[in-house]
Amino acid sequence: MEIPLLLTRIKLTLAMILSSLWFMLPSGGAAHEVTPTIGDLTIEEGVLTLELRMNLEAFLAGIDLDEVQDTNNASEAERFDTLRRLPPEELESEAQNWIEAWLASVTVLADGDEPVILSPEGLDIPEVADPQYARNSILTVTGDLPEGTQTIIVGWPVGSGDLGLRQQGVEDPYTGFIEGGAYSEAIAVAGGFAGGPVEAFTAYVPVGFDHILPKGLDHILFVLGLFFLSTRLGPLLWQISAFTLAHTVTLALGALGLVSVPGSIVEPLIAASITYVAVENVLTSKLHRWRPVIVFGFGLLHGLGFASVLAEFGLPQAQFVPALLGFNVGVEIGQLTVIAIAFLLVGFWFRDKPWYRSRIAVPASCVIAVIGTYWFVERVFL
Fold first, then answer.
1. Other residues' Cβ atoms within 10 Å of the Cβ of residue 233
2. Is the confidence at residue 15, as pLDDT, over 60?
3. What are the C-alpha distances in Å from 65 to residues 34, 56, 70, 100, 221?
4. Which of 68, 218, 224, 352 sits at a 20 to 30 Å CA gap from 358?
5. For the chain, what are the domain ranges?
6. Angular region, 135: left φ>0, alpha ψ -120 to 50, beta rest
7. What is the pLDDT of residues 332-381, one digit of tens each?
8. Strands, DSSP E only, in the chain?
9. DSSP readout, 64-100?
């Protein structure tokens, strides 16, 4: 069978499978995926209230959320899965002692140096709808601020993953992204996001970069799939340009709330996109005219994946556009870094060798295809 005909059949088969899955996939986030904790901060009459929407089971299991991106890979995975199946009242009982100890590691400083004591106020745990999908519990904590407090600083504990912190009830609220072991900027109690466009832009560049390196393994593999098609610069530029344009469009639409697709649909399709580009690398070494078009389509999916990250913790409304641009620039820097590393490791040294494709590009693409296929099956059926 000729290669172009075989490629056409593969594309048609893949399209039919993905179209069917669009209607078959359940809603909700997969239980194994680590998502950031979202904190809604309210200050009224000297009382600080922090509502934390969190994957409580991951915390109780002792998983290091700074390092683990997939709970299936954690040594505490069995304990985590057991906790996910507990009814709310049993999980709340498990959480009582942990809450007191963990809260002691959450830092709130009034006016930069006065510690604020936090106390648990309530814990809302939803019923187990489907143990295959994560449930988000809401832990509410409060603390009394010293009289006349003007600003606060929030410190997030080491090992607790990322925190998207959103100030509520004021004009120009603070919105920030805090990694485990890090501190927020000074947050004005009365509101008024102090940072200007430059500050917002620079603050969100590392957030976008971090979503590629080290946390975006699926996006990394897709970019590597583009890299291994050909040793020539032209094919790579065409693909990267199509991919960048596409994910920029859906990232912006998703961040603006104009487009929203459940992660249960987007994530399997992203895995399928990884498999597709890798398989095509094995079957051809040329940039056929359909490849940039298909890459553009897959870029739209990846943009929705990027948008879901921003949706978790939001963007500062006062500096929405600079923050969005900063995140996108961070993503692009991350992607270019992946390509640069791949080029320095293999492209620079071996791209002109007659055996480069057979010994490096094809085997690497096969590995990428296997991983993408495994993720697709895992995200749909496991």
1. 10
2. no
3. 7, 12, 9, 19, 22
4. 218
5. 3-29+205-381, 37-194
6. beta
7. 999 999 999 999 999 889 988 999 999 999 999 999 999 999 999 988 88
8. 37-44, 47-54, 107-110, 114-115, 119-124, 137-144, 151-155, 163-167, 175-178, 187-188
9. -TTT-SBGGGSTTHHHHHHHHTS-HHHHHHHHHHHHH
